[in-house]
Design a protein that fits this description.
Blueprint: E1 7-11, H1 16-29, E2 32-39, H2 49-56, E3 60-65, H3 67-80, H4 96-111, E4 115-117, H5 126-137, E5 142-144, H6 155-165, E6 178-181, E7 186-189, E8 219-226, E9 229-233, E10 236-237, H7 240-253, E11 258-264, E12 270-276, H8 278-294, H9 297-316, H10 322-334, E13 340-347, E14 350-357, H11 365-368, H12 380-401
Parallel strand pairs: 1-2, 1-4, 2-3, 4-5
Antiparallel strand pairs: 6-7, 7-12, 8-9, 8-13, 9-10, 11-12, 13-14
Helix pairs in contact: 1-6, 3-7, 4-5, 7-8, 9-10
């Protein structure tokens, strides 16, 4: 295989894994390696990657600013579905992989490369996410996965490899954390975090302030939605990526958006992950609150039954699968009236919805009031209840005849 490979496009982040992989591909495949970095909002982490990639052995460095596409076409559809994996995880890393793989294949075609490569391990979910998407866009693509080929056993071996070839990385044996950051969130794994009982050290967090050290005074934020999509904060319209970045800063300052959980990977093992999703936490809470005001009850229930499956599809890498697209069509139809404003209170790690309004509201104060009114006839409830109780009463009478307790 090594002899047939001439040019490889590597999904490159400049971190420990992909830095080693870049050099390893050069050494073992003797092929040209193009380093591709997707700008998904990593911020200062992007600095100097061009020079670093070329010094490590890349023949070319390609960087694409995908922040707006990521927010508009990947994060926002997921938010419209209120997708949360295993009741907690907002899928910040999961949703980033399909867009990276999409552009990875596109660059391979433009550069005339015969192969692509990524830094996901054979234990994780990312390998599935990258490769399912790659095969969607090019069914015959050749994918090289060093973690499934080399004899390096873990992060300590990678750090030793970097020392041998003088590859500059920030990871050390004392701080061997795996951190993945994008516009929507930041994830942390490895090191002491592999012990589910050990508290995550404060220095690991990058996007959120320690709630105990957050401002004493609460911050109120108003988010405007149109058709289920957030479009403005505190009355100021923003692009999707700008809006998320703004809320990250505001909510992160108040310690909002931390999550420490043990999750089930697609390959079958349980792992512990620590996540920061400050802006996403605000958007999830606000979006849900607006849905309760504007969505029909049965439509809301129907959509909610899809959330576990929809979230699982994203987590497992099936973003472009036909079933996810079909679910999205139902979700988006249900979102057409999710338009309005939600007021959220941020205070010391808490995100509380304290107000919501919409000109498409289904809330009728004349019906909901506890005060005297003439719109709703309360004695109508007697027949309503008896009809719903009918099958219960019939079942109990049958059991009594049969002598059942």
């Amino acid at each position: 295989m090594a002899k047939s490979v001439k040019k490889i496009v590597l999904a490159y982040s400049g971190g420990l894994d992909t830095s080693v992989i870049l050099r390893w591909l050069k050494e073992n495949y003797e092929a040209e390696v193009i380093a591709f970095c997707a700008d998904l909002g990593q911020g200062e982490e992007m600095g100097g990657l061009d020079e670093k990639a070329k010094k490590t052995g890349a023949s070319k460095y390609v960087q694409r600013d995908l922040r707006e596409e990521f927010a508009k076409d990947f994060v926002f559809p997921m938010l419209r579905a209120n997708a949360v994996y295993e009741g907690l995880y907002m899928l910040g890393t999961s949703i980033a992989r399909p867009i990276i793989a999409k552009h990875l294949v596109d660059i391979a075609k433009k550069e005339g490369a015969d192969s692509i490569s990524h830094g996901a391990t054979g234990k994780g979910n990312d390998q599935v996410r990258f490769e399912l998407t790659a095969y969607h866009f090019e069914p015959s693509i050749n994918i090289i996965v060093p973690w499934r080929e080399w004899d390096l056993k873990g992060r300590s071996d990678l750090i030793a490899y970097c020392k041998k070839f003088k590859i500059p990385v920030t990871a050390t044996l004392d701080k061997p954390y795996s951190t993945d950051r994008n516009l929507f969130h930041c994830s942390h794994e490895g090191g002491i975090l592999e012990d589910p009982w050990a508290e995550c050290p404060e220095h690991v967090y990058l996007m959120t302030r320690d709630p105990a050290k957050a401002p004493e005074r609460a911050r109120y934020v108003e988010v405007d939605f149109e058709g289920g999509n957030p479009v403005a904060v505190d009355g100021k319209r923003m692009s999707p990526a700008t809006l998320i970045a703004h809320l990250n800063k505001v909510a992160g300052e108040h310690g909002v958006g931390r999550l420490d959980m043990v999750e089930d990977r697609f390959v079958g093992m349980k792992v512990r992950g620590v996540y920061e999703t400050p802006g996403g936490t605000v958007l999830h809470a606000a979006h849900r609150a607006l849905e309760t005001l504007t969505m029909d009850r049965e439509v809301l229930i129907t959509r909610d039954t899809l959330i576990p499956r929809y979230a699982q599809l994203i987590y497992n890498g099936f973003w472009f699968a036909p079933e996810r697209l079909a679910m999205q069509a139902l979700v988006d139809e249900a979102q057409k009236d999710v338009t309005g404003t939600v007021r959220v209170k941020l205070h010391k790690g808490n995100c509380l919805v304290v107000g919501r309004k919409s000109d498409r509201s289904l809330f009728d104060p004349k019906l909901a009031t506890f005060e005297a009114e003439s719109v709703y006839k309360q004695n109508d409830a007697e027949g309503f209840i008896k009809l719903h109780a009918l099958r219960l009463r019939v079942g109990v009478n049958r059991d009594r005849k049969l002598g059942r307790k």
